[in-house]
Amino acid sequence: MKMKKLLSLALASVMVLSLAACGGGSGASSSSGSAPAADAGSSDAAGGTLQVNIWDNNQLAGIQEIADAWSAESGVAVKINVVDWDNYWTLLEAGASGGQMPDVFWMHSNTAQMYMENDLLLNLDDYIAADDAIDLNNYYEGIVNLYQSGGHQYALPKDHDTIALLYNQAIFDKYGVETPTDNWTWEDVYNAAAKISEAGAADGVYGYALNTSNNQDGWYNLIYDYGAQVITDDHKGTTIGSDAGKAGMEMVRKILTVAAPQATVAETGTDSLFQSNLVGMITQGSWMINSFYKAESHADYKWAMLPYADVNGNGACDKGERYSAYNGLGWAISANCAMPDQAYSLISYFCNEAGQKKQAELGVTMAGYKGVSEEFSNAFEGMDVSAFVRIEEEGDLFFRPYTRNTTVWEDALQQQGAFLDAWQNPSDPAVMATACDNAQKIIEEAIANE
Amino acid sequence: MGKKKGMTAAEKREAIWGWAFILPTMIGLIVLNFYPVIQTIYQSFCKTGDFGKGNVFIGLGNYTKLLADGEVWQSLWNTVKYAIIEVPFSVVIALLLAVLLNRKMKGVSVYRTIFFLPMVCAPAAVAMVWKWLYNQQFGLLNNLFHTKVAWISDPKIAWISVAVIGVWSILGYNMVLFISGLQEIPHDYYEAADIDGASEIRQFFDITVPLLSPTTFFIVQTRIIGALTVFDLMFMVMDKTNVALSKVQSVVYLFYQYSFTNGNKGLGSALVVILVIFIMILTFILQQAEKKLVYHN
In chain A, how many domains are there? Predict the structure, then answer.
């Protein structure tokens, strides 16, 4: 009898304990689930582990290599968790609300303001002042400014990115179409895409593929080429519904008439279509190079500078006619990180000159540090990626449009009631014009609600 | 022998132990279920701030906004349509399978395992596989039938395609419940019917169906609730730029969109409260119907 009692008591206490452990451990971090609950918590005492969250699996290997080098010096372990883009923000927000964020993580222009204003990120001012290895003047100004709020710096610039045109040499050769050059206009893209789509119809090959979700790496750039802005410089408005904005989207519409149908790109994805060698051209960001560099037919994949829009019709690319979106991630630290000194040491290691050089050499991404473009261009042996660097000199850059809560309007623009309607029905210019008007309203309303 | 004299020592001990045993579950329910429920109801009356801070009470503002929004009504209709496919088909097919597999035959456990397997697979993995089966250009289905059907991009059929995945996933679970229900039916009835010369079909409708009705009712009720809260299928199978999405997205999908993608917790909370009320009304109606429809010995 006594034995039974003891046993039941033991059982009950085990259950209570396991429950408590669940409560404490869940949501602590986004570790892949295989780690035991105790490890999943954010950093414990000295000698503990720094939890790092990123969203891009393509960059994991390179980031891990740099982090391992830092661990060897500092003796602090680093655990990097990759969470895909959509869930990354859901998770980070849940962690922020519950006071259980990872120690170190990427910040993005879409949400940086909200996180900074709510004091969720560690103020780095004192750390930077005391750190000889970091001088913010050495980084791209737009990215440094992005992670500032109230005069304080909340993240170190990790990288920057630009956009280029990616084409499949084999497809161009097969259908006898001239390959893209740096002097191409969007009109040339249309003509080439039309030829490929017509000749390749029997093989299921399309000249071009673009989804509504290809904004930063797609149709945003045309809006700027034609002289409009998705978000104005003060982040309080848009000119997407202006005549210039409509002219840009009219060019997009024209290309869509000879591109893969929207249902196809939504089901299969533009990247998958391209890597299946079924699409002649897409536009892509520099952060995606790795994925194409490692692809099966990578020898056929070539990069050209983003085309320009010959708005004034003089047959040459003038200032303001060739735009590329650019953006830069930031390395941020949770405001209630238990090991802020070590965490700062880690992000300083990622972002100082040596770390940025290494990141470029490993081909992770283009640096946030100025003057190491060369290293990045050389990182991809056998693939010329200089188009991403050339556009910085020969074209103009605009920062990826953002407001305080970017996702609200950014998502709405991609769906029905906005540009999805036009993508569904590219043959009708009126639908695209209406979509631009709707987009203008969506953005204005979203900003008013921020 | 006063009745209010309290418990004996033994009874007291038993009561204490009783509480001790349900305590872990109670704590779990309170912390993980009751508290969030109350929070959700409270937030549904608020314009919520970022990261759960700075909630402003706005009364029924979220509710009036939702009820005036066509998107909400469409998603409710989508959810109902999904349930209309998923519930009857998953119940009827599972019942037939259960009857077939509730006999002495070779390899019966192999069949049972095969039909139950979808239940063991992670729903996300199931949805990913179906997504590629359905793919218009490269999918197995279109390749097999030499068609070009846009299974998940055509608004007219996408909702059926998604519901088919739902039926397939839940079939095994319903079947197991039916088998356990079947085994509780005394064999004598069938023997008597045999002697009276009733055919197998007659036996099925006059013995199996009525005697199985408590199990059937249980399955129908839980499946209706399950179908009305469906989320993962739509989320995994349909890209957010899919043109059929607005004709397929369920209420919970919209809730996810509001709460987590757009960060508007208040609006999302109000939406789930509406869904819960809808389910409660439906459950109440079903409970009333139970008295008439279910055969009790």
Answer: 2
